[in-house]
């Protein structure tokens, strides 16, 4: 075995630089000075005897070997975190630090319901929340930046385990006084191709809405511009189109203060599954199952 091995800190610096593409931002994310991070990466390169990063005044570019090392570093860091998790899991259930990503179409509607109660009933749990799109949240999970993700399925998650939290219906939101007078159940045929407003790419709700409608022409003509459901509601309220909303958002009062009318979508697939997912074979599986119970109770 080699006497000189990379340290976890050096690998963390390398991964942070790869993620942020900038020494200053990577240092800030790592809570160190830029000179400390730069020195750590140079020490790593010297230790390995290779160049991993090509530096210039404006551009940080990883070599082909550098990209391979980053991928390996992700796995090493994830294994190190799971080792710490294994020890922590031997202690009190659902205690210590836990990092969870939550997608934007769930976070503002579920978190206010369960977080106060969770803090009261689980005072030894330090829950760190991170709001990300479905794509970014799954990537964070696979790279070990978070321990679990609260998201909506179906969505491509890779090799994970999951716990079912709830089923959430999809609604169609119309501007007030829409001439078609939306019925109690809205058929997909009533959705105008050129007036459908959806969240931009990266949000799973967009795919859930399009799949539920089962109208291929909507995918080509829908306007993907919304960065949040609240923005889409305001656009509908100003008669700029119509959109799709999850029931949990409607129940949480997202339409309060507007004149938007929302009705359930009439479709066999007009439901998304709210689920908690985590990496397969995680030693903290019992913790995640307990967290899922808390989420279901909320």
Give structural attributes:
298 residues; alpha/beta; 9-stranded mixed sheet; 11 helices; 11 strands; 43% helix
Q: What share of the residues does DSSP label as strand, in percent? A: 15-25%
CA distance, first residue to last residue:
51 Å
Can you count the helices? 11
Mean of all residue-level pLDDT scores = 87
Largest sheet: 9 strands, mixed
Uncertain spans: none
Percentage of residues assigned to helices: 40-55%
Radius of gyration: 23 Å
State the total count of DSSP E strands.
Answer: 11
Secondary-structure-based class equals: alpha/beta
State the shape: globular
Order of helices and strands: HHHEEHEHEHEEEHHEHEHEEH
Per-chain topology:
Layout: H1 8-20, H2 23-30, H3 34-48, E1 53-55, E2 60-62, H4 64-89, E3 96-102, H5 107-121, E4 125-131, H6 134-142, E5 148-153, E6 160-174, E7 196-199, H7 204-213, H8 216-221, E8 223-226, H9 229-237, E9 242-246, H10 247-251, E10 261-264, E11 271-279, H11 285-297
Parallel strand pairs: 3-4, 3-5, 7-8, 7-9
Antiparallel strand pairs: 1-2, 5-11, 6-9, 6-10, 6-11
Helix pairs in contact: 1-2, 1-3, 1-4, 2-3
